[in-house]
Amino acid sequence: MQHYSFEKQLAQIAHSINEGRISHAYLFSRGDIEQMKECALSVAGLLLEQKIGEGINPDLTIVSPETDSGRISVEQIRQFRSYLSLAPHSSPYKVAVIESAERMGEDAQSMFLKLLEEPKGQAVIILIAKQPDILLSTIRSRTQEIRFASQQVSLDVKRYEESETIRKFRDLRKVSLSERFQYAATLSEDNKESLFMCSEWLGYLRALMIGEVKKKSLHTKRLKRLVELVDDTMSCLSSTNVNAKLSLERIMLAL
């Protein structure tokens, strides 16, 4: 099992706890998912005064994307709200962790926003998001962001290739340009889904590119161009009213 470093972030929150200045909602962002999750569980251990992993704690809940859809649904947030409405069972706080929070759809985010607007005194929420810009700005503004530095531009290409998202991305090279454009058109209808897909593609392409550089491969220049295109598309989708379909079509052309 890989162990991640997050001493600085944990020390920052531990200091706030000791000073009695704990935030009702944190946003752990831009690091490796497992790194941020380990830190979130360590924070939970401090708040619940129990080492997490030693049995189930009724005052801790973790919400993850549904297996089938890969999204966090409205129903999950509704159950999450019910959980937070209860007083702590045996600890000073209730702690709720939302993993891959950017996978909440718009309706789920809107419902979650209402929770942040009416914080519970004994509840602490920790959002984990590799791509926090996909979240509503009103959600981000109501949380204390704790940034992490990714400890690897994930070089584990095999891990990426095992994901359904990357399998579909690789298969796009095998179909006609018109089919790729149709895929881009469908994807462009959901801005948040487009951002998430681009984020996954970018991580995979960077991992591939670093591997090719080490081998001094002739494919490096082409991969670099793809990385730049996907990175530019993500920036556009995050901050402007750019035509999403045209931006995604540029990637399809470069495959």
What does this structure look like?
The chain has 255 residues and is an alpha/beta fold. The chain has eleven helices and five strands, in the order αβαβαβαβαβαααααα. It folds into two domains: 7-147, P-loop containing nucleotide triphosphate hydrolases (Rossmann fold), CATH 3.40.50.300; 157-254. A five-stranded parallel β-sheet has the order 2-3-4-1-5, sandwiched between helices. Helix 3 packs parallel to helix 4 (106-117) and helix 10 runs antiparallel to helix 11 (244-254). The mean pLDDT is 86.
Kindly report the average pLDDT value. 86
SSE order: HEHEHEHEHEHHHHHH
Q: Identify low-pLDDT runs.
A: none
CATH class label of the largest domain: Alpha Beta
What is the number of beta strands? 5
Strand line-up across the major sheet: 2-3-4-1-5
Q: What's the alpha carbon Rg, rounded to whole Å?
A: 20 Å
The biggest beta sheet is recorded as: 5 strands, parallel
- Measured by DSSP, the beta-strand proportion falls in 5-15%
- CATH homolog superfamily of the largest domain: P-loop containing nucleotide triphosphate hydrolases
CATH topology of the largest domain: Rossmann fold
Q: Count the DSSP helices.
A: 11
Measure the end-to-end span: 35 Å
Proportion in helices: 40-55%
Shape: elongated
Overall tally of structural domains = 2
Question: What is the strand and helix layout of this fold?
Answer:
Layout (H helix, E strand, L loop, with lengths): L6 H12 L6 E5 L3 H16 L11 E4 L10 H11 L9 E5 L7 H12 L5 E7 L7 H5 L2 E4 L9 H5 L2 H8 L5 H11 L3 H25 L4 H20 L4 H11 L1
Parallel strand pairs: 1-4, 1-5, 2-3, 3-4
Helix pairs in contact: 1-2, 3-4, 8-11, 9-10, 10-11
